[in-house]
C-alpha cells in the first residue's frame, strides 16, 4: 500500500507548530532533514546531548499519510493551521510501501577489520574464512553501530590489534553493543556496555545473545554503572561528551590500561588529545578515516 508524502520547507522556528499540526491532521510519521542538503550550505548535526534538540536554520519536514486521505482537504486544513506556510514550498507525492528494514539489510554486507575480525549481518552465513577468523553476527536494530561508520571501523580495528585475553573491557556509549561484543569474541573475559538510550541496551543484549556471549556482557545506564577498574576502554561517542566525561572515563581504568576514543571529527582531535594528556594520559596517538578520528592511549 503506497503512502502520501507532504514535504514542507520552513524555518526552524515553525518546527514545533508544523509538527503538531501534521500530527493533528493524522500524519503517520514526521521526519526532519536539512533543506540545504546536498548543497554547499549543507550543515551536519551529530547526535545531541541529553535534552538538546539542535535544528537546521531551514528544515525540510516530511510527513507520511495514508494514500486515501482527502488531499485537498488535508492541504486546506494545513494552511489554515499554518497560514505562514508558503504554498509553493509544499510538495505532495506518492511513495511506495516497502520493508525498510529488509531493504537496509540487503545492502549490509560482511566487512573485515584488521587481520581476522569480521562483522556479518545476522542473515548471512559466513563461508570460506580462515581458521582463526573472529566473526560477529550483528543486527543493529534501532541502535548505532553496524561497522559501516568510520568511527566504528576505527574502534574495531584498534580492538583487534589489542591483546584482550582475560581482560575486562568497558564500552561507553555501546549502541548496538558491537564493540563490547567484538572484545568478547577477541578474548576478553567480560565486558560492560553503557548507554543512555534504553533501545541501545536492548540491542546490545540481543546481539550478545546472537553471538553467544550474553553471559559475559553486563549493560547499564550511565547512572547505574558500577565503579570497576577496567583493563581496556572504548568510547565511540562525540567530542563534547568525551571532553566532559574524561575524568570519569580515566577513573574507570586501571593504571596503564589502554583506551580508544572516537566519534570525534578530525578538526576536534587535537583538542581531545590535549585534554586527556592534561589529565595524565600517555602514549596518545591520533588515527584518521574520512572526516573522523580516533584518539588512543593509556591511563598514566
Write up this protein.
With 300 residues, this protein is of the alpha/beta class. The protein is 28% helix and 31% strand. The protein has helices spanning 15-24, 71-81, 100-107, 150-160, 178-185, 198-210, 239-244, 246-251, 269-278, and strands at residues 3-11, 29-34, 58-66, 90-95, 111-113, 117-121, 134-138, 168-172, 190-194, 217-220, 230-236, 253-265, 282-289, 292-298. The strands form three sheets. A seven-stranded mixed beta sheet has the order 10-9-8-11-12-14-13, sandwiched between helices. A four-stranded antiparallel beta sheet has the order 2-3-1-4, covered by helices on one side. Strands 5-6-7 form a three-stranded mixed beta sheet. α6 links the parallel β9 and β10 (217-220). α4 runs parallel beside α5 (178-185). Mean pLDDT is 84; it is low at 41-54.
List keywords for this structure.
300 residues, seven-stranded mixed beta sheet
Give a brief description:
The chain has 300 residues and is α/β, with parallel strands linked by helices.
Secondary structure layout plus pairing:
Blueprint: E1 3-11, H1 15-24, E2 29-34, E3 58-66, H2 71-81, E4 90-95, H3 100-107, E5 111-113, E6 117-121, E7 134-138, H4 150-160, E8 168-172, H5 178-185, E9 190-194, H6 198-210, E10 217-220, E11 230-236, H7 239-244, H8 246-251, E12 253-265, H9 269-278, E13 282-289, E14 292-298
Parallel strand pairs: 6-7, 8-9, 8-11, 9-10, 11-12
Antiparallel strand pairs: 1-3, 1-4, 2-3, 5-6, 12-14, 13-14
Strand order in the largest sheet: 10-9-8-11-12-14-13
How many helix segments?
A: 9
Residue share in helix: 25-40%
Mean pLDDT, as a whole number? 84
- How far the N terminus sits from the C terminus, by CA atoms, comes to 60 Å
The helix-strand sequence is: EHEEHEHEEEHEHEHEEHHEHEE
Q: How is the biggest beta sheet arranged? A: 7 strands, mixed
Strands, count: 14
> Which word captures the global form?
elongated
User: What is the radius of gyration computed over CA atoms, rounded to a whole number of angstroms?
Assistant: 22 Å
Structural class: alpha/beta
List low-confidence stretches: 41-54
Beta-strand fraction estimate: 25-35%
